[in-house]
Amino acid sequence: MSGTAMLWPVFALVGLTFAVWCRMFVVRIGQMKRERIHPQSVATSAQAAARLTDSRVADNLRNLFELPVLFYAAALVALFAGLATPALLSLAWLFVALRFAHSAIHCTYNKVMHRFVAYLAGGVVLWLLWAYLAFLLLT
């Protein structure tokens, strides 16, 4: 397996983050134009929360800078330690797939229990990835 194989799930998650970031602009600017909201009137998070009614995409973008930060760190550790095993790569791709599912739910119909299952499963996979990485580093 290529030593850089761990970079592909990283690029996929970065791509998801970019797509959600772009979607946030479309949603926010669309609402601001429709409702004639002046940009200065949403300058703080409190003002934005009061004026911008659909925060699903913005909330999801924030989520993509929470648990995924630990994923990025694990991928870099695996890459630099030369530990990109098939099992570790599978866990990485599974985490990314679950983040895609979480984002799809969050940015569309936003059913909380569906979103929670995707989030929890992704979290469990991430902790397993870190545990397996630690095992590989110790052996």
Automatic annotation (TrEMBL):
Domain of life of the source: Bacteria
Transmembrane segments: 6-26, 69-96, 116-138
Keywords of this entry: Membrane, Transmembrane, Transmembrane helix
Pfam families on file: MAPEG
Compartments in which it is found: Membrane
Family annotation (InterPro entries): MAPEG-like_dom_sf, Membr-assoc_MAPEG
Entry GO terms, CC: membrane
Protein name as it appears in the record: MAPEG family protein
Organism taxonomic ancestry: Bacteria, Pseudomonadati, Pseudomonadota, Gammaproteobacteria, Lysobacterales
